[in-house]
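Q: Is it fine to ask for two folds in a single conversation?
A: Yes, each is treated on its own. Send the first.
Q: Here.
A: Result:
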Amino acid sequence: MIRRTRLSFPLGWLSRRAAPAAVLLVSILGWLSVAGAGHELSFYPGYYPQEIRIETVAPQSAGAMLQKGQLHAYVGGDPLRGRSDPGDVRSVESLGGYLVLTFNPASPAAADRESRCDAARRIARALPAPSGPYHFHPYPVTPYDPDYLDHFDIAQSRAQEYRATAGATGSLKLRARGPLADKLLAGRLGAAGPQWDAVLEEVDLGDLLGARRTAIDGWLGPPWLKAGWFHAYLLHAPTIADQPGGKAVEALYQRLVSGEYADLAEQINLERALVSGLIGGCERVVLGYTLRRERFGAEFSQGVENIAYDSQAGFNSPIFIRTVKLKDFPWNGWLRLGIASKPTAAWNPIAGFSDPVGRLMWAGLGDPALIPAPYGGGWVDNRVTPASVTAEPAGLAIPEDALAADPATGALREVGKAKIARAKLTYRLRASAFHDNTRMTAADAVYALSFAWRWGARRSPAGAEYDPAVDASTAVLRRSLAGFKLVRVDSEVKKFSDMSFTYTVPVFDVYLNAAINPAQIAAVAPPWSAVPWHVLALMEEAVRRGLGAFSAEEARRRNVPWLDLARDPKLKEALTPLLDRFVREAYVPEPLRRFVTADEAETRWTALREFVKRRGHFVVTNGPYQLTRWSDTAVVLEVFRDFTSPLGVGSFDRFAIPRRAYVARVETRPDRLEVYPEIERVEKFLRDYRIIREPLGSPGADEDRADIPACRYVVVGAGGVVAAGVSRDVQGNRLVVDLKGRLKPGRYTVQVALSLGDNDVDPLIAAAQYEVEGAP
């Protein structure tokens, strides 16, 4: 099996088109030159493009622009819908959403569970055969969800049940909502009036996640943002909230998000029980899922390469901005992205940047603590590294001088004596400069954590310091964080060619009241901020004075503007004298009195004032790109080549060509499973590559750790999941799953899938029957 596409590699120094930018950058970096070294510096901070232009382009125009090289990629949609990739255009696919059938609670035809479930099966079978982006799959956890292996047997059983049902809509009156539903129900409607039994509609995944995918400073969502069980909860919970089983389902959900389980097997059983409870009454039924196709230009010279994307967010994700590269530029170049919509959300890093354009902007402007694993359900280190994780159900002692927020006021206080936590994480922060040329310190991370309580905790009597968007986005953090402590500030020295760079690394211990899955726990409460404390404090003061609100919801409630740090001239006019006052007073917010001196505060406020004079806006972050200019239909971001940042060109290249592993066969032994993998290898040559599939351990193969797949397994017995885990035990050309002494006598089904490079997307799942002697 061979797949071919084009891949470009630097064949020399910059092309003529890059020469002006190269001259400018060389002049900037001249002070870094080493006399007599004669070598090109091997480290370039930031990511490949020197400039990113995001512009509104109608889909009907974008296809031609891609083929002519006028756009490098089109984000969020398919401008060539229904067509295969033409010429030098390529595509990627990600989970788009769900096709769902929702019954009318007032309909006599859907008055009980049996009638609803039977109608759903008949309607599903009556729909035309799936084609294009729609895939029949009557279960809410899909192959594009990282936890699909955990639900595989249930999903397969449900699909067989639906296929065995004769298809007919009978006398049901159905409504269609959206283009896909219109296409599938064409000619079979009958609910034009007020009487209807069910509505068929496509639910977009981005719309479903809504504010949960909105950036809140340094966080990108709850730890389980990409989990299928979480999506199922968002899809179905509103329809069963008032049903008899609604409270039981909510209790299961709270156990999952609180880490109230003993091990991975119990966690999976809770997830399966949650989904079963959500769909059991058939108030709403998932009939299938849709895939989003996005296109990019891959022309030999004018195109882009090194494309990484998210399995659920596609191009509109942090990973795309951090890998995409113009082919004729070893680094640098002008990247041009098209998107269908205009900017509508306010530009503020707390509850703004929430529309498609805003999310794409924030992927470049903001540098989150961690980013979602592009092809899995875990998280990838970005600006923090969890150096160690210690979990203890019996409790870990929290140091007396660790800090925690006072729930009543949001103020930081020492936790005091005899406080315990269930888990401790030690984080190493990769501090660097902000766009206003101030340097990040531990105070920025401390202020971001305290912000969650000041603006996310609802108090009585209600005050001005509350926003429901902050509440929703920081609920997991506030529920889980028991305390945190700045342990020390380290210095790290890294050498690149003949140069050495010293980086500042604050080290925090964070104590949690939850012992969540190790793959997710690092994302619960990372001590980090993408925005400097002085910008956060200025925004807070603006909201207190009624100049705006962080979120659209709160802005409507208070009848004030949605806080926009760039495009609101009235806000700029109001904040300028306030900024001058903070400079004079060397203002330090109360939570930072022990962390920031007056001199440091004066330096911060002065730098921000100069930045605003120079740039004309207040959007200051430590992200790889900075806001340069904008109009109603276009935004330009300029790279921030900051040598105090340890991340640079190539930091995430390992995700650019997602490889897969396949189960060739499974052999059962009395005490183990032996899984024989086939893996994909990449062979590169000039500007091309090809992917070859061959067995692990093939003669002459130059294998390294990156070629060893992880074997994920779930053991299902009569009562549910009895064991689960991941094996990386390689013995020759096979992976071994050790089951010795782990299972009681009986018969089991073991579900196995392989992940290569953390790629869990659409896995090939093998099921093997396994018996432990002594079964009756």
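Q: Second one now.
A: Result:
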Amino acid sequence: MAIERDRRIEFHELGTLTSVTRWIRTHDEGLGEWLKNARRAYQPDRANVDEGHRVAVLLLKDSDGNSPARVGLLDMGGATLEDMDRWSMWQDPDAAGRGSGLPEEETQGNGGKAYMYRLFHGPACILGVRNRKLNRKGFEGPPNSLERGTPGFMPDISAGRDLPIASWQAELRLALAPYDVALDELPREVQNAIRAREAFTLVEGVGPVDTYKGRIPADDLVQKTLRHDQSTLAVEQLRLYAFHNGRVLNGGRPLELESIAPYLGFETPIVHEIPELAPDENGVLQSTTLTGTRPRGRVILYTSRENMPNAYKKLKPRWKVTYRTEHQMIGSKPVSELVPTTPGSYFVYATVELSALEPDYVALGRIRPNEGPLTEAVDRFVAEKIRSLAKEISDRRRHEQDQQSLDEVHEENRKLDDFKNRFLPSGGPAGDGGIGEGGKGPKDKDEPPANIREYGEVPETIVLGWDATQTLRIGRGVKLRIDSLLRPKVLDRTGRLVPRAKIDWYSDDRHVTQIENGDFVAAIGRGTTEIWAQVKGTPIQSPRVRIEVWIVDHVLLTPRTLEIPLGRRKQVIAEVTNDEGNRATNVFLNWEHDADDRLIVRISPTGWIVGNRLGRTSISAGAGDPATGGVWARIRAEVTVLPNPEEIERGGGFPQLLLTGRGTDPATGEIRQGDPDQPTLWQEVTDYQNNIWWLNLDSPEAAFFFQRRGEDIRLWRGFHAQKVVDMVIQVHMKEVFTAQGDAERPDLWSRHKAVLEMYQVQLAQAMWEKLQNYVLTGEELK
């Protein structure tokens, strides 16, 4: 059909102006747009600013009675007349690229102007000084009016358009004066950049709206701006400083978004490549590469140690999926939109990097991507990956909740363990004074008996059982329990142990070592760093321990064969050669053996092997997973545990009751795991040597009561107390029938039963008189 067209498209000017600016609602959104524009101006096809000069300064000034508040951004670009002419056009899709053809951010030419148009009562302008020329153009007029939205040179063409100037310093001095900032007060690298380029741009607005009595909440505004999607690339590519009322913020350091501590065990971001074809909501496959014309994208999942939506101020704004292409941010969506009511998702956030989203899915304002088949397909894929990670975290949290119960039971057990000592012999070979064979046992010679030991309440210091002047060497890929190596103790000012104090471990360089699951140190990469402990909620720190991580090239074990009598220990030396040819025998490695019975031997991190059960096995040591480049000894050490003709001695001190899954096995330095095939009160040969008993929480009996602890804690306390009573009775029985030595003769079961019943009457009744109130109320044992 024929048509005679109008000479040009007609738009209602004010209606169009309102439409293209209404998406700017807050100052952090506007500042994000200013920062994005500054970043783009620095690129080679624009001002071509050297990397070392890519800096900017956010300027904030409250109203002081004589002048209104104002907000400005100083950068080193130096806007020219050409820049002003392109800036003046609303809705210009080529505002940033200027036809350069470079693969860069596509813009709509509205964001920065929309901020200046909508969110200031007074004038808003852009001032550029470059090549000894000054250009100033901006907006002035009633808010949200067509008059205000029509840009013009300020104060007029003759004084604001390509005006020759004698001194850029004089112009900068005048521009900074309203902010109470002088040139020599700017950060040193900003001064250097301006002096080198003899150019600058200041975009500013006077009388910002939505400020109470002209006061700008500087700290809050800065943090919101840094969290904004459109600030992301800018903050990555330039150094941003800030001033408020003439005073530099952040101690004069560049601003940066606060890091989000990752969820323990999920410290490394998880990257998933987006499939080339992905189904949308209707099951139709969508190309994520625009039929092979764009590169494949990826989804990067990150975790947070804190519940993000609950941390309203800092983390909730960042609990989102951010969408970006190679050159620009195109918005975000809340995680809750993609995976509503998913357990564990409160600890996950993500970034989608997909070139195919531009230009069709880039919406006005870039608040969120346009809806359509491609975003549907991508969101389905992202949601699937978030759900999978959220489930892992949820499972971990359930375990951690169990761990919290375990910590509570550990504290209960400590009280019961001290209580039981009142009913044990206090002298002779079974008492608290003996130290056992070779000084074994949990009790130190200079430590008072547990039944009269006093504990502290207020932490004062942390002491380590490791000489802090010695370097701890670890093979890369090795994970070790810090507590068993460094043996920290929290003491009060009188030197008493403070058992209730909790500590966190820290590493000075996460690229060398990382703290995992609270009490493991993982050697990540070659280098040296320091680790230390700190009492939770206090500034109290332990001495720092220097760690040196080696990249292991090979491991040699000596001797190759070992025969160990039951209950005795021998050491296998691991000589480590690193990738630089250095050798040492004091490098901590991971150790393992290959017997089906995991309890045949017990191995410490230093290679000491204790024969625990009769049998044979082979032992190796190494660093990392062999399937992914880890290095282990090529020739294993063959170990045979033989019968011991000599009597195995009990460790000294009062016998100690520990919890599986919580207590450290002194024979290995690791947490002793429970075993459903072992008794509830469990003691191996190595445990006897260390005078330790285990309350095996994985035994069917203990597991039944432990799982119901949350429903009825009195049921659990009754069971726990009864096991302590049983342990005391067994200790007495063992002393009676082993103290006779060679004089002991085989006897009738009736005599053993009579002795058992005697102790049950004498000891159990006396103990339960004290335990009844504890079981019912949980009050302290008296």
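Q: Anything structural to flag on that second result?
A: Two points. Residues 325 and 357 are 7 Å apart (CA to CA). The first strand starts at residue 55 and ends at 61.
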